[in-house]
Design goal:
The chain is an alpha/beta fold. It contains 13 helices and 23 strands. It has three domains: 130 residues, no CATH class; 131 residues, 3-Layer(aba) Sandwich (Rossmann fold), CATH 3.40.50.720; 164 residues, 2-Layer Sandwich (Dihydrodipicolinate Reductase, domain 2), CATH 3.30.360.10. The protein has a nine-stranded mixed beta sheet with strand order 8-9-10-5-4-11-12-14-13, with helices on both faces. Strands 15, 16, 17, 18, 19, 20, 21 and 22 form an eight-stranded mixed beta sheet that branches. A four-stranded mixed beta sheet has the order 2-1-3-23. β9 and β10 form a beta hairpin. The protein starts with 7 loop residues before the first helix and ends in a 5-residue tail after the last strand. The N terminus is likely disordered.
């Protein structure tokens, strides 16, 4: 078979003389990338472009990820530039890590001439992928995970868990706990996992084993446990050892009730809601360093808290915040009524698809658990609006120093793409961006730079967030940390 990597039509632009030919040439390189990215991932190396993982992506998806860089950097990132770097990475002996191919390429001082400088590539990569700086770790055995609940967040977490297993020994989704829903329960739940009206089809295979009450998802058996409370379960009898239980039901929020999971064999409990009492509320990427091994029950806070805390921390550390107000424009949720009906909450009984509904939010109070210096400085409220997904946080902040819009956006852009927050803060400068553009965004929050307002010491920031997918990604990141899975991301952030 011919070695396509040596095909001159794919290694240079010399024979490309029209737009169609250029596109086909790029497509050919993207096709060559697919098996390389897959092999690297099975060896513990995750290739991405500006935070978007390229694992299991099609050639056209890979090409689309390259185009994204144009709106951010103002330069066209070509497969011609990234392919030589990717190809050379395969020759290096690297431990588990993440490599952002987009950022790595754009930082290269000779990135427009990469195909012609193989020796310089080697030196550049060895400098950027410094093995001595890698602090990656993984457990000796895969960490067992149990999802307690299988609603919007539970199903998204199930997708993510089975799609991000790395070389196969990071973690395993072992079980899902639900209440029996009636006839054809498993079949109906499988259908909901396969097809999602917001996030699309599941990119994998699901087989229903009714006799054993299991799903086999991408070859991974997942036991369904029917129970009305944790007290009815004993994980050790199901050969599930010291699992991390992710409680996504929203039912239990205090230490006493959540301890039920520990009593039936869980090693740790993560609750996908703001917790009460002394339970540690953690926003991954901001205050997760405060976690102790002795912490048994951990709150991943709320989707809104995860969206606003990273930006508030960024602004507070750089400029200082004297006061502010946060208004959340939030997509409706299953907590609201489809049409007018009784609801114990104020206003929430009115039809969610037909009304904007003013309501309260606990996100602002939760901010102070992650950023203590902002205690008493912020107010907040929320408006539920007739969209099924993606929300918007409007941050009106009074700073200690003046800043203009251009310099503020430069700071925000640099922070989103080069700082330690790059994994959780996204950035867009599109004039045409609307909420549906951020479906399935992996970021906790995305700053809309075109909407930024800065007048003296007062600024207004508009931050989009997928309150389902982005939040689930934060929960997954927190789960990885608790499972002792830490992957260094290259190139390293610029402080």
């Amino acid at each position: 078979m011919a070695d396509l990597t040596k095909n001159p039509d794919l290694r240079s632009r010399e024979k490309v003389d029209d737009y169609f030919g250029d596109w086909k040439w790029r497509e050919g390189l993207a096709e060559l990338m697919v098996p390389i990215i897959g092999r690297l991932y099975r060896n513990g190396i995750n290739i991405m472009i500006y935070g978007k993982s390229l694992v299991n992506e099609s050639p056209v998806d890979i090409m689309s990820a390259h185009r994204f860089v144009r709106q951010i950097e103002g330069n066209e990132l070509s497969e011609l530039e990234t392919f030589p770097l990717l190809e050379h990475i395969t020759t290096m002996d690297l431990p588990d890590c993440e490599i952002d191919l987009g950022e790595l390429t754009m930082r290269c001082p000779f990135f427009k001439d990469l195909p012609n400088k193989p020796n310089e590539i080697d030196a550049y990569l060895r400098d950027q992928l410094n093995i001595s700086s890698i602090k990656s770790s993984r457990p000796d055995k895969p960490q067992d995970i149990v999802l307690y609940g299988f609603g919007r967040i539970g199903r998204l977490l199930a997708r993510m868990l089975v799609q991000t297993t790395g070389p196969g020994n990071y973690f395993r989704l072992r079980a899902v706990v639900v209440r029996k829903g009636g006839h054809n329960d498993l079949v109906k739940r499988a259908s909901l996992l396969r097809r999602d009206s917001v996030h699309g089809r599941f990119n994998g295979t699901i087989r229903v084993d009714v006799e054993n009450e299991q799903f086999v998802i991408n070859g991974n058996p997942v036991q369904f446990i029917y129970a009305n409370s944790p007290s009815e379960i004993e994980y050790s009898k199901l050969n599930i050892k010291d699992p991390i239980v992710i409680d996504n039901t929203g039912i239990w929020k205090d230490e006493e009730s959540l301890s039920q999971h520990l009593n039936c064999g869980a090693s740790k409990v993560i609750v996908t809601a703001p917790a009460k009492g002394n339970i540690r509320n953690v926003v991954f990427g901001v205050n997760d360093s405060s976690l102790n091994k002795s912490d048994k029950i951990i709150s991943a806070a709320s989707c809104t808290t995860n969206a606003i805390v990273p930006v508030l921390k960024l602004i507070s550390d750089k400029f200082g915040i004297d006061s502010g107000h946060i208004e959340t424009v939030h997509a409706y949720t299953n907590d609201q009524n489809l049409i007018d009906n009784y609801h114990k909450g104020d206003r929430r009984g009115r039809s969610a698809p037909l009304n904007m509904v003013i309501t309260s939010t606990g996100a602002v109070k939760a901010v102070t658990k992650a950023i203590p210096e902002l205690k008493g400085k912020l107010t907040g409220n929320a408006i539920r609006v007739p969209t099924p997904n993606v929300s918007l946080a409007v941050l009106v902040l009074n700073l200690r120093a003046s800043i203009d819009k251009d310099n503020l956006n430069i700071f925000l852009k640099t922070s989103a793409f080069e700082s330690k927050y790059r994994e959780i803060i996204g950035y867009t400068n599109s004039h045409e961006a609307v909420s549906t553009d951020f479906y399935s965004s992996p970021f906790a929050t995305i700053i809309d730079s075109q909407a930024t307002i800065a007048e003296g010491k007062q600024i207004t920031l508009y931050c989009w967030y997928d309150n389902e997918f982005g939040y689930s990604k934060q929960v997954l990141n927190l789960t990885k940390k608790i499972s002792s899975i830490e992957l260094t991301r290259f190139p390293l952030p610029i402080e």
